[in-house]
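Crash report, auto-generated. Payload:
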Amino acid sequence: MITHFFLKGLDRRVSLALLLILAVAVLVPVLNLVVPEGSPFHLPNYLLTLFGKYATYAALALALDLVWGYCGILSLGHGAFFALGGYAMGMYLMRQIGTRGVYGDPVLPDFMVFLNWKELPWYWWGFDHFAFAAVMVVLVPGLLALVFGGLAFRSRVTGVYLSIITQAMTYALLLAFFRNDMGFGGNNGLTDFKDILGFNVQADGTRAVLFSLSCLTVAAGLLISGGIVNSKLGKVLVAIRDAESRTRFIGYRVATYKTFVFVVSAMLAGIAGALYVPQVGIINPGEFSPANSIEAVIWVAVGGRGTLVGPIVGAVAVNWGKTWFTGVLPELWLFALGALFVLVTLFLPKGIVGTWSDWRAKRKAAPPSDPTPAPVPAE
Amino acid sequence: MQISASRLARHLFLVLALVAGLLARPALAQDISGALTKLTADSYADTGEAIADLATSGHPRAAVIVQAIQDKTLEFDAATKTVAIRAGSGVVDAATGETIAAPPAGLSPVRVNNRVRSAIAAAMGALTLMSPDPAKRREAAEAVFKSRDQDALPALEAALAKEKDAAARTALQTARAALVLAKTGASEADRLAAARTIRERGDQDAVSLLRSLPADTPAAIRDAAQAGAKSIETSLALWNSAQNALYGLSLGSVLLLAAIGLAITFGVMGIINMAHGELVMLGAYTTFMVQEVIRTHVPGLFDWSLAIALPLAFLVSGAVGVAIERTVIRWLYGRPLETLLATWGLSLILQQLVRTLFGANNREVGAPTWMSGSIELGHLTLTTGRMWIIVFALCVFVGLMLILKKTAAGLQMRAVTQNRSMASAMGIRTPWVDALTFGLGCGIAGIAGVALSQIDNVSPNLGQSYIIDSFMVVVFGGVGNLWGTLVGALTLGVVNKFLEPFAGAVLGKILVLVFIILFIQKRPRGLFALKGRSVEA
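Recovered output after restart:
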């Protein structure tokens, strides 16, 4: 039955994307590790890390598409779930430093020694164990989403109001994590990581594995999201997106559906964050900034919301553009990003993937029974 | 015991000497010739008396002479009755400070022993208490109040007897009360009176004084002091609340300024304008430009710079707003989430544009003279600039209300936002009204920028720091209702400032955000929600 759940999600587009992602997950590490350095096919280390970062962004975009594209919840606070997952992983990595920190304290991380803390706060307990941290990576964002979403959806906070309070949520977390007394490293965040599960974080092999894991996360996220949106549950979600009141009057518990998809999405974002941190080597409160969350929204919009594959395309494309611009014309990047926001909303409301499938559908005068007709998201 | 006995003796001696000095020449207080003569007698007792005389004389040179005795630069010649101060190689006359061309040969220093030294110490305190400058006298009294040095009591009482300046007199009385209160020997009635005097002072120092009585104080006095301290603390807490409320109003008025333009664009028109903060920033930069031009061309007009900047900022931000509405937003009516994204993009572009033109650093915007300085009111301190911003915010609010309620343009705006097709059928050019309404909201953001340039750093990031707060205010107050925005802004400002002392600035802000998030759960449409059919639209 579970297989059936996943297979239902596999339309042609998603299957193609899955194959592509898996191919990348294998190919990129091979090009980096196996191909000798002199070869033109060799992939330099920095690109491996960069692609790994893109992959985690793609997972975040996918999570956002699940709530925005299919349920009409425009969350401007998904960066918070991403960052919380990242902090959970960062805490595990901090504990792994052990006595190798600058102060060499056997119990406390460097920043706590620096702030004259005497003992480890209770919320750091257990993060010595990877399994515990891994559970926290999904549990903490999931719980926050459950409480926040549960409250908001039950009170029928919708549309822009919801967007604004999600933004307030991530802003409040940003301020909170900036505080030194919170015990999460304050302004500097958590960094200077050494090992993950006994492997050196800096080592080529570890990075390659982390990259592949990120790709697999995207693939798994795609499978699960595909399964959800093509199930009966997914149809209800789309119904909520297009006519919330009507769905409620028909007898569906709108708040429960919304909360469910919000929590799933938050968990996926948390996993993405957890994979992001060991690859970039730092997590700081800046990840909570509202601007980051909005930037994630534009990845989804560029790729095409409500298409599952689109956000992945969008996240990679926009971030590749960002990397290129900040390298070549750093002062122009914000102009380009701003213009992207404006132009995409004005001229490409369905994003790259949505527009492309529209165009294909138009070309084939009588489209064969497409399992997923291009969704027309309404507010 | 020996020490205290000798101290007592010294005090007695001093008091006697001071009183004697006062009684001896009440009419000729400035005459110090007698004291100088005593100095030439070369006896410790006479020197002590002379110092006490000097201390109460009020003579401008008295302090110099006493200081000279301490420094052993005061010399005398018994034969010629000359008293002089050795200054470098020459000597000056002690009484006049004039250089003595041919000093007598027999000059020898005035000798000092322990008794003379303690006389000097008491005299120095008394001399500042008797200084001709009332401010200095107040300072000296304050110093005695803080040090609670019992030795200063006689000098204090002597000074009090002569004091005419009201403020200095109060200070001296309080200082005296501080000493009497802690003095074991004083009568209970005196000490109770002292406790009352200190209670009248009414500040934190008075509280700590009343709370730190010697251990052997009788219970009645102790109780009176405790009661006094309590009553002071209560009144201080009240003043503190008043100050907090004032700070809160100030913050609230800033929030109101930042949010009121948004209340038009978001509240009335339903457009999520994420570039609102950047329009505020444009207003601030307009102020900067105006001041630059004035500084280089007509420096005399500097005090008018804000008045000149106001209409310009309104025009600049308003024009940008109309341009945004005509090029971007009008294609997105009915799609609020897309509007949000597009205007966010615009905000990035505007920020980067300003950064490219003016640089990323903070720009200096000066305050006109009438906006600097502060007013003291009881225990309150009001910065003039802040007060002006409160007044200004209220003026903008009232002005906007008048425009919306009393003018034809305002009527059209309300008509279009309430029922677009009906308004259109009545012959109102709705696209123009849209553009103008949006322009009005943006122009007001520009005006806010002029005010905010006075209290915040003018940098390309200026707008970003206000945008979330502004949305919070509008959502909290209730969309589509200017009164809601006013109440929302002031409430949030005051709540924030009252939380700060307990929770700290950052935690206070976090608590406010959490409060708003929870509040919206309870009342999803804000404090003053619109009712009726337009709500679900």
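Post-recovery validation: Strands of chain A lie at 190-191, 195-196, 199-200, 282-283.
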